[in-house]
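Below is a filled-in request sheet from our internal design queue. Each sheet records the structural input a requester submitted and the sequence that came back. We keep these sheets so that new team members can see what a complete request looks like end to end.

REQUESTER: design group, bay 2
PRIORITY: normal
MODE: inverse folding
CHAIN LENGTH: 171
BACKBONE (tokenized):
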């Protein structure tokens, strides 16, 4: 999310109260099972995906803290969120609350999964960081532990296993 409007918008840009109707087709997204699988195939921490799914499920269930995911850029954050979304059960994925990028993770602690970039994360106070389940991918830090069995099985089957049967869908 990038700020827009009076504080984040272009200088001297008037704030529009309504948007014109968009007549064209919406652009297709880049987070598909195929792009997520390709991303994970080359990621050195792809084996942590079952723990990430487990941590997000814990946050959704209320028995774990929100997850703070740090990556080198917001596109990579979106791909991790796509991986989690494809592996969660349909209803859990539909209820997932997340932000793909934020400069203020503390303001979004009601979300299940908060993604940010390394530059922002470096300036976060330690007490704030400790309030989250931290997955710092560029630093190679992700929680160890035993993932939920269903998360491990789903990750082993692959992000696209179910969507290949249902037809390619984008987030």
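RETURNED SEQUENCE:
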């Amino acid at each position: 999310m990038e700020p827009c409007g009076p504080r984040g918008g272009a200088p001297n840009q008037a704030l529009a109260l309504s948007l014109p109707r968009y007549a064209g087709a919406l652009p297709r997204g880049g987070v598909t099972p195929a792009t997520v699988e390709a991303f994970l195939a080359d990621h050195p921490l792809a084996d942590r995906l079952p723990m990430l799914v487990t941590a997000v499920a814990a946050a959704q269930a209320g028995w774990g803290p929100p997850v703070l995911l740090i990556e080198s850029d917001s596109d990579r954050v979106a791909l991790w969120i796509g991986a989690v979304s494809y592996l969660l059960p349909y209803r859990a994925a539909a209820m997932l609350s997340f932000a793909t990028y934020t400069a203020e993770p503390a303001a979004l602690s009601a979300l299940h999964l908060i993604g940010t970039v390394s530059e922002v994360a470096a300036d976060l106070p330690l007490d704030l960081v400790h309030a989250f389940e931290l997955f710092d991918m560029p630093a190679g830090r992700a929680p160890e532990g035993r993932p939920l069995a269903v998360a491990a099985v789903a990750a082993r089957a692959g992000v696209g296993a179910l969507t290949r049967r249902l037809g390619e869908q984008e987030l």
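SHEET NOTES:
- The chain has a mean pLDDT of 79.
- The radius of gyration is 17 Å.
FILED BY: M.R.
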